[in-house]
Write a structure and sequence with these properties.
By secondary structure, this protein is an alpha+beta fold. Helices cover 27% and strands 29% of the residues. Helix 7 packs antiparallel against helix 8.
Length: 712
């Protein structure tokens, strides 16, 4: 390992140090290569794969995308669920995350992503889902500003849930940026609980840096209502935030009420760590899974590479799946960067991480930044003003570390980093504030257990996200069906239960596909699907009878008619709910399916206005515009969709048709070539005809623009 270099400053009021970034590159210090711009490359990497079914290990080649700049090299394996397999910190020569052997499971439905290491996306199944074994589509490119970008994306065919992960490296910055776009391609609500998982190896001195005073154990909201104390903002060598001190209680815990927008790890002996940045208001979920030291010694097998996991999510807990609405799209941002040479950190933001450690007679201050900051000013202040000021040329490979010889006592201290123009980049105020020391246990039941309806709603949204046969359910709707039926046995006129039962029946019919564990034989699957859809129809009829003004039953009945191929019946149903955006989308699909593109235009425009970020609704509006002879309107929508998701074959097909209608044949051919590229990447090419029919756009299958449309 190349040793990390840092500044040690003498205790004088102002210190000016020479710029060292260029010197570091010249003499090889810190291992920073001569790359001075972010680059993109594609190739292949060979990994040893061990098989659970007893086959002999084999060397397997996987497609690899590499993003690289002066400080980081990011390796992505799109054929393994879009996994970030490695993030190499070039300043230290060390990987930020653990890289593990590949153990290939017997079936993807019983697999765990933890065999692979790096960073995995678990969606729509939230807990080691099967998506990491699917081949995702990908696109790598360099932006005009020099940023290296990779898109990886995938749609789970069963649940009609889509994820696109955009990874990027900017020139001159030691940060990997992640942007996630999740889309519900269904016209009805669904459970939503995406989790991103990162992997690390164990070290006695590894510290978990999670800015919260409380954590809750795995199973909180299920069978355990206990808050456990977490050492923040103060910790010592005996604190449970160090792996060597972890007890069984802290084997698997979730942060409760995060206080900052960062978390990470630090290895004190190696003097390096990792920072993750996020918006805790939108992504409040942070989970730590690790094996306590004694148990690890007992459990570890010869040759096994042990690992620990740190998860993150918009959900608070694994047991806290939330709803997201029909046609919804949600986007989230996070960023990762390495730190070293600062003895840990107490605060971090986009500009860097800082540490402030009080001794009896001195204070140690340290900073590791994410980009070069020539002439940076670092100050330490107490209640009576500035205690120390230093000026240095900081950069990701050159952290600052300095000891201020002044007894800090217990007064508040503030550490700041400013650029040479005086703009404040980092400000950290440390107030000695002891955290809780004892656990708190609540009496009573979790909210979801408080009423049968709450329990049924959880069964509907949560259990369907699993990919069985784990826990006795296979990711179908059977748990919700049973729970709502039980409510209706005692209260047959409960409209909420009727609607929940209909949703669960329709979900089961969609998800219970031949070949999935626990689904049954093809004959059993077909029989059960017919029975469930028939029961859903009766259930919705009863709900409409009891609550004729409730548009939810109307919309579900319309969607059910579409599922059964009855576009005319669906249109008649949707007309009963003219104020519902979901009904407007369904109406447009039904009318377009009936060949009434002119009538579909109004509902399609209304739905598109209500769901501006939804790719299927915008595709629907674009397709209807094409059929109505308005290719420019269609192209305007499709261009925005492509910018967000360049891996969507439906968008590309519609773009190609719009370009053809405008006489732009070269652009139309480019779109066709992109579709061919995506088809070659996938295990099975997208069935574009089926996707267009699903949106009511069957008329566009094999469609040729009219001559008059070349020059609108």
């Amino acid at each position: 390992m190349t040793s990390a270099k840092h500044f040690t400053l003498p205790a004088i009021v102002t210190i000016l140090l020479l710029a060292l970034c260029g010197a570091c590159a010249a003499d090889g210090g810190g291992g920073v290569a001569s790359v001075r711009a972010a680059t993109v490359s594609e190739g292949a990497v060979t990994r040893t794969v061990t098989y659970e079914d007893g086959r002999a290990p084999a060397e397997v080649s996987f497609r690899q995308i590499v993003l690289e700049n002066e400080y980081l090299r990011v390796s992505i394996l799109p054929e393994l669920g879009g996994r970030v397999s490695e993030v190499l910190d070039k300043t230290t020569g060390e990987s930020m995350f653990l890289k593990r052997p590949i153990l290939w499971p017997t079936t993807k439905y019983t697999a765990y992503g933890s065999q692979l290491g790096g960073i995995e996306v678990n969606f729509p199944c939230f807990h080691h889902g099967n998506s990491f074994l699917d081949r995702w589509n990908w696109l790598a490119r360099q932006e005009p500003d020099g940023t290296a970008v990779a898109f990886v994306g995938w749609t789970e065919a069963d649940s009609r849930q889509r994820v696109v992960h955009r990874l990027s490296l900017r020139p001159g910055e030691a940060v990997m940026h992640s942007h996630y776009r999740f889309t519900n391609l269904n016209g009805r609500s669904w459970g939503f609980a995406p989790w991103t998982n990162t992997f690390f190896g164990y070290d006695e001195d590894l510290q978990y840096i999670i800015p919260t005073r409380w954590v809750v154990p795995h199973g909180f909201n299920d069978n355990n209502l206990t808050l456990l104390p977490w050492p923040w903002p103060e910790a010592d060598d005996k604190s449970v935030c160090f792996w060597r001190n972890v007890t069984d209680q802290y084997n698997s815990v979730f942060a409760f009420a995060l206080e900052e927008d960062f978390h990470g790890v630090y290895r004190h002996q190696a003097d390096r760590g990792m920072v993750r940045l996020f918006d805790r208001r939108r992504m409040p979920g942070v989970k730590l899974y690790n094996i306590p030291p004694q148990k690890l010694k007992e459990a570890k097998q010869p040759g096994e590479v042990p690992y620990l996991e740190i998860w993150s999510s918009p959900a608070l807990l694994h047991e806290d799946a939330s709803w997201w609405e029909a046609w919804a799209a949600r986007e989230y941002d996070e960023a990762y960067y390495p730190v070293h040479g600062i003895g840990g950190y107490r605060y971090a933001n986009a500009h860097g991480a800082v540490n402030l450690v009080r001794g009896e007679n001195d204070v140690e201050v340290a900073a590791c930044v994410t980009r070069p900051l020539p002439g940076a000013v670092v100050t330490l202040a107490g209640m009576d003003g500035t205690w120390w000021r230093g000026v240095a040329d900081l950069s990701p490979e050159r952290p600052l570390r300095h000891r201020v010889n002044r007894a800090p006592g217990r007064e508040p201290l503030t550490l700041r980093v400013l650029d040479r123009a005086g703009e404040e980049l980092i400000s950290y105020e440390q107030r000695p504030d002891p955290g809780p020391v004892a656990a708190v246990t609540f009496s009573g039941k979790a909210l979801w257990q408080a009423t049968p309806m709450n329990a049924a709603r959880k069964a509907e949204q949560y259990h369907a996200l699993w990919r069985g046969p784990t826990g006795g359910y296979g990711g179908f709707g059977e748990k919700g069906i049973a729970a709502y039926r039980e409510i209706l046995r005692g209260d047959p006129n409960n409209v909420e239960a009727l609607l929940g039962l209909a949703r669960s029946l329709m979900l089961d019919a969609q998800m219970r596909l031949p070949g999935r564990p626990g689904a049954g034989s093809p004959e059993q699957v077909q029989k059960l699907k017919e029975e469930h859809l028939a029961e859903a129809e009766r259930t919705l009829a009863r709900a409409r009878e009891l609550a004729p003004a409730d548009v939810r039953a109307v919309v579900l009945a319309g969607l059910l008619a579409l599922d059964r191929g009855d576009a005319a019946g669906a249109a008649a149903m949707f007309r009963q709910a003219p104020e519902s955006p979901e009904a407007q989308a369904g109406m447009a699909i039904a009318l377009a399916s009936l060949g009434k593109a002119g009538e579909a235009a109004g509902p399609a425009e209304a739905a598109a206005a209500a769901f501006p970020d939804s790719s299927p609704v915008q595709q629907l509006a674009a397709g209807v515009a094409l059929l109505g002879g308005r290719p420019l309107d269609a192209l305007d929508r499709l261009t925005r969709l492509y910018d967000n998701d360049p891996l969507d074959a439906v968008t590309l097909r519609l773009e190609g048709l719009a370009f053809g209608a405008l006489g732009r044949q070269d652009d139309a051919l480019r779109a066709d070539r992109e579709i061919e590229r995506l088809s070659a990447q996938a295990e099975s090419p997208p069935d574009l005809a089926a996707e267009l029919r699903r949106l009511g756009l069957a008329a566009l299958v094999g469609w040729q623009p009219r001559e008059s449309e070349h020059n609108p």
